[in-house]
Write a structure and sequence with these properties.
The protein has about 240 residues and is of the alpha/beta class. Helices cover about 35% and strands about 15% of the residues.
Length: about 240
């Protein structure tokens, strides 16, 4: 019996063997990306590249699967790697303590990836990720805004140009259209973002305000993203 035997019942042995040879890059391993990484590891993805320069802090415990009192102070990519290897010791995990932006993008060879997950927060970084993946011919799925929302059932998978309501998606539509990007698969919510209450928490790099979040909204977005990646990678076996 394999640890992936229940998944194999749905996808088949050939698909599972193929997943073990796949390499997926996850940019941002926080509330959304952390759950995506978890599901990919449990689905048998053989190689994972994790990109994030942040460390686990106390306020992450309410929503990030890698965050525990034992991991506070650790780099998120290191905490995620430790968790992945506790799930699948045969996985290859490469950690990159990197804040992804246009000025750091040249450090990455996108051509080695089979899929890219965008779970970062900054618009500039997200646009650069899409451009780099597109130039390398690598499929990418992007998470739109999950902060300041409470309805986990409102998420949809669609093309960026079919989105509405989401403020982040609106900006992305405009910027990607200007750059000639015609398609981008996204996970987004039509829920109108709430206005968070005042916070004493220091602003993170690239943020204008501190968003509110829950244990159940970003996690759902992350699991949906992982599901799309797995289903896309195994589509030829169906």
């Amino acid at each position: 019996m394999s640890q992936f035997s229940r998944t194999e019942l749905l996808y088949g042995q050939e698909a599972m063997e193929d997943l073990s040879k796949r390499r997926v890059a996850v940019f941002g391993v926080g509330g959304v990306g952390g759950y995506a990484v978890e599901a990919l590891a449990r689905s048998g993805i053989g190689t994972l590249d994790l990109f994030d320069n942040d460390t686990v802090c106390l306020s992450n415990l309410n929503r990030q699967i890698i965050a525990t009192h034992q991991t506070i102070g650790m780099y998120k990519v290191d905490a995620a790697k430790e968790r992945i290897l506790s799930i699948n010791p045969n996985a290859a995990v490469f950690t990159h303590k990197l804040f992804f932006m246009p000025d750091t993008a040249d450090q990455i060879d996108f051509s080695v990836f089979d899929y890219v997950i965008d779970a970062i927060d900054t618009v500039t970084g997200k646009i650069e990720l899409v451009m780099r993946a597109s130039a390398a011919g690598v499929p990418i799925i992007s998470s739109m805004g999950a902060g300041n929302k409470k309805n986990a059932s409102a998420f949809e998978v669609t093309d960026i140009y079919k989105t509405s309501v989401c403020p982040l998606a609106k900006v992305m539509r405009k910027e990607l259209k200007a750059r000639g990007i015609r398609h981008l698969k996204v996970v987004y919510s039509k829920e109108i973002p709430l206005k968070p209450l005042p916070s004493s928490e220091p602003l993170q790099q690239g943020r204008r305000s501190t968003p509110g979040s829950t244990a159940f909204v970003p996690s759902v977005a992350g699991l949906i993203i992982a599901g799309e990646v797995i289903n896309d990678l195994t589509a030829r076996f169906v």
